[in-house]
Amino acid sequence: MRNCRLYRKSILVLIVLILLLSTSSAFAQTLDDYTAYPPFLRSPDPNNVLLVMDHSGSMQFPAYTGCDFTGYSSNRAMCGTSDSLLDSEYLYDNSVEYDGYFNKEKYYRYTTNKFEEDLVCIYTQGDPGYRIGDTSGCMSGNLLNWATMSRIDVIRKALIGGKSISVQPSLHTLRGEGGWRTYSDHNLGCTFIIDGGSYPNLDHKVSISEYGMYGTCGFLTIHASGTGIWGSSDSFRYVYQPISGDFDVKLRIVSPPSESGQTYAKAGLMVRESADANSAHVMVNATNGAGLQFAYRGTSGGSTNTFAGYQSSSYPVWVRLVRNGNLFTAYYSDNGTSWTNHGSVSVSMAPSVLVGMDAVSNSTSGILTSSEYDEFICDVCMSDDFDDYIFDAFIWTGIDISTTGGSQTESCGNACAIGTLYNANVTVDVPTVESRGIIQEIADKDNDGIWDSDALRFGLMIYAGDNRDGEMKVGIAGSNLSNFITALQNEAPYSGTPTGEALREANDYFRQINNYAYESNAAYIGGQGSSRDPFYNLGIPSEHGLNIILLIASIDI
To answer: Could you give phi then psi for residue 75, rounded to 5 degrees?
Structure first.
């Protein structure tokens, strides 16, 4: 049961930081002619920026896919088990660039305890392995970012270059963190299990297996040519079993055939009086370009017509036919549970008929097309979930009717496109030059590990529902870059999202008062110690410079 559907359309609220980055040397000088700088970058006095950062449990969620959130286990966010056959959100797209700890254009291989760049495995745009890798265990950095990065990972990467667990002269070792999840991509043929470790050290491990090894996955692929299932005679591939009397049959269609480019190339559920080309039939088909088709031939050699209108649909989709005497009723569903009655038709057929899957390329050129089916459920005949890797010839008969070249295979997908891996640390070495984030680019331009004297000054406040309702971690005055980075790296995300409380506490900090008691930030207000607001003089806030509250959070839309 999905208790909460959280979509990958998550916006990290970093707008102001993007503006701050415009002062970085990464921008060509000619951009000055087109750039409007925020006022706080033009101020003659140094300005203060307090990062108010979301550390709620949603920061454990995946950065690029959804989370079927079911709660917490030992403070780890549990995002459930998901499958691209049920939700296309879990399909990797190698045309999209995914940011994270791994370099998008490099390829990696797992060694003893971490991923290392593979200098031999190189694919360029247009190659089948581009931004994917291969079955030898070569893995694209872009794919690894998509598969393993959490929201807290990508925020840390953007702000400070990532969570570094080891620093060497020329390398930093970064470690991913986050919650638990399992998801499968049937195009890649891979199942990914991401383990979130033990709170508060949510260190990620990843296991990669062939698609479906950790759950049911099988599907039937029918390869078919044929000129069509229409008119008074048919030419198509039919995989069927005998059935007698009244029945209720359901079929999940994963994808209709598309290779021929024909709008009415189709695949679906068919009841047929015989295997003759001109047999009477009733069918519900998923077409390549016209949606769901509901059609019948009332008599042997008669014409074929629709008995209900075409229905737009996304795939996968469930279809269903129920026989009651000579009355056939058609249904469709997106989940196999809630059904829509789309119409009925009366066709006089013998009690014993054939039922199964039809597929046709609808082309006169003999083009072979492929359609996929995931589950067949029958109340009075043999059901099949196609998950044993072998086509069950004792259940099904597959034939070409007035065409040639057709076949069918049952599988659990292809071998995983990037090989398999077990319990691997989401840890990678990156060059030191790649371990800097926006904060260092703005406030440590000379890369000496110390705040620049003329740069913006940063402080850090976090908020989460576990009694961290706007908790100061690093004050602006008297702070140093090392303390700031350490605090941002080590604070673990968990629990709810008290955003309003945190903003009130941030207001208290800059006003140097304690109007709100959500957090005890006494060391940072009231002029106590060196952690007070550096622009607060003699009990009166200074008019020089700006105090900026920068909220960093993820928003699901």
So the answer is: 70, 5
476-534 per-position pLDDT tens digit: 876 788 899 999 999 999 999 999 999 999 988 888 888 888 988 888 876 544 455 55
Handedness of CA 136, 414, 316, 212 (dihedral sign): negative
For the chain, residues classed under CATH 2.60.120.200 are 219-411
Work out the angle at residue 460's Cα, subtended by the Cα atoms of residues 455 and 465, and round it to the nearest 5 degrees: 160
Residue 367 and residue 356: Cα distance in Å, rounded? 22
**Is residue 317 a contact partner of residue 286, using CB atoms and an 8 Å limit?**
yes
For residue 201, give both structure tokens: 């050290």
* 534 prior amide bond cis, ω within 30: no
**Is residue 134 within 8 Å of residue 417, measured between CB atoms?**
yes
Q: What does CATH list as the number for 219-411?
A: 2.60.120.200
Contacts of 475 (CB under 8 A, 6+ apart): 459, 523, 524, 530, 531, 532
The DSSP letter of residue 203 is B
Residue 483 near residue 474 (C-beta atoms within 8 A)? yes
Q: How far apart are the first and last CA of the chain?
A: 21
What SS3 class is residue 282?
strand
Say whether pTM exceeds 0.85. Answer: no
Element containing residue 152 per DSSP (H, E): helix 151-160
What does the alpha-carbon distance between residue 542 and residue 227 come to, in Å, rounded to a whole number? 82
Q: CB atoms < 10 A from the CB of 291, how many?
A: 17
Strands 540-541 and 536-537, by their bridges, are: antiparallel
